[in-house]
Amino acid sequence: ISEIPQRRGHLEGGRSSSSPAPLQFSLVIPTYNERHNLRSLIERLSQLLDRLLGHDYELIIVDDDSPDRTWELAQDLADSYPQVRALRRQGERGLSTAVICGWQRARGQILGVIDADLQHPPEVLEQLWQQIERGADLALASRHVDGGGVSDWSLRRRLLSRGAQLLGLVLLPGVVGRVSDPMSGFFLVRRAAISERFLDPVGYKILIEVLGRGDISWIGEVGYVFQEREQGESKVTWKQYWEYLQHLWKLRLDLLPVQRFLRFGVVGLSGVFIDLAVFYVLREQWQLGLTRSAILSAEVAILNNFYWNDIWTFSDLSRQQQGWRKRVKRLLKFNMVCLAGLILNVLIVNLLFNLLGVNEYLAKLLAIALVTLWNFSINLKLSWRV
Ligand code: GDD
Ligand code: MN
Question: Ligand 1: which of 32, 64, 236 to mutate, judged by most atoms within 8 Å of the beta carbon?
């Protein structure tokens, strides 16, 4: 059994070389106290997949150190099925992060996830696989399309589930609205669609993270009936609803350019004060010339702005390009863009004042607003989103 430290973020490999993906398919099975379901799930999955893919697949069980020792059973299964791998994660719990942990160690071109408690009928995998073969980037098992449903849910549970979906629709229409069942935890996704993306989900709903951050254009859905649980119990408590809210909120902030722009604006404002303060010190204390002071103080402000933008405004993007070389590269680009922005600023002021007769101060204000906007979008594209 592999005992593994937790790593966040990227799936390694993908298109770039570091870990090749020589298998067709990797299916992750997250488990927590599923001792009584796992064996029969593995039997059904292996039968189906052997027929479908020969031996060109792997089943990765990711257990979070279950008190019922599911990890022990997982290891037994790995010993008797060559396609099964068992991972035991210690010191961390959580469905979504367990799935990412499994994907990070997966070798397949296609990645998937299925619950271990048999509530997701394994046989549906065949139709999901067909969707992928037809070219889908994401193949999703849904309760809310033809052939889908829930077996015997109380009104309360249905309302909670639909309420969560509705909330997601309001906060993240462009993400949650793309599928009929955003709560589903049974799907396949092309490795290439997520391998370059930084995934950092909270709680249970890994699909929302994949939809929100992945590069997914074609989605295929397949109906399935969510089975009743025969063995063991659900791990869902109020905590999972709270985590869902946190997850939605975090994605919303990360995906909203307006939010980014506001941050960029706040950072820019801090730069103005730094610029003035340094200018004051250089002039009054150091008695430096006007032009020199202006250039030096502007440069200090640019460095300040870069720092905060890198760790705050664009933190999700800079985390995808770690290492000091890349950081210096971003800094140089940012610097160039800011200097170009300065020239643009002067041009705009001249244009407004001399050609259009706009009041000097109003012209300056408009120029600042326009250049900030320009700075933001050019830097986003050129410096951070590379
Ligand atoms: N490794 C790990 N760590 N696995 C976990 C954890 C955890 O902290 N919590 C739950 N699991 C595993 C369970 O063992 C099971 O295999 C699967 O994740 C789903 O957990 P359940 O507790 O059975 O969830 P559910 O049936 O209420 O919810 C399911 O229903 C949704 C449909 O509304 C989830 O599976 C969703 O993925 C699914 O879409
Ligand atoms: Mn379940």
Answer: 32
Ligand 1 residue neighbourhood (C-beta within 6 Å): 30-32, 34, 62-64, 93-95, 98, 115-117, 119, 161, 183-185, 234-236
ipTM value: 0.97
CB atoms within 10 A of CB 110: 24
Give nearest CA residue, ligand 1 atom 24.
Answer: 234
Ligand 1 centroid–CA 32 distance in Å is 8
* Under 8 Å between Cβ of 38 and 70: yes
Average model confidence (pLDDT) across the chain: 92
Q: Are 332 and 383 in contact (CB under 8 A)?
A: no
Residues forming a β-bridge with 149:
225
Q: What is the pLDDT of residues 55-107, one digit of tens each?
A: 999 999 999 999 999 999 999 999 999 999 999 999 999 999 999 999 999 99
Residue position matching structure tokens 């309302």: 159
| Distance of CA 43 from the midpoint of ligand 1 (Å) | 20
The alpha carbon of 115 is separated from its chain's Cα centroid by a whole number of angstroms, namely 21
Start-to-end Cα distance in the chain: 39
pLDDT of residue 3: 59
* Residue pair 201/244 in contact by the 8 Å Cβ criterion: no
Q: Which atom of ligand 1 is nearest to the CA of 89?
A: 1
- Residues β-bridged to residue 23: 108
pLDDT at 18 over 70: no
Closest atom of ligand 1 to 62 CA is 1
Q: Which atom of ligand 1 is nearest to the CA of 93?
A: 8
Residue with tokens 């619950």: 115
Nearest Cα to Cα of residue 208 among 174, 237, 183: 183
pTM: 0.75
pLDDT tens, residue by residue, 335-386: 999 999 999 999 999 999 998 899 999 999 999 988 998 899 889 989 998 7
**What spacing in Å lies between the alpha carbon of 224 and ligand 1's midpoint?**
16
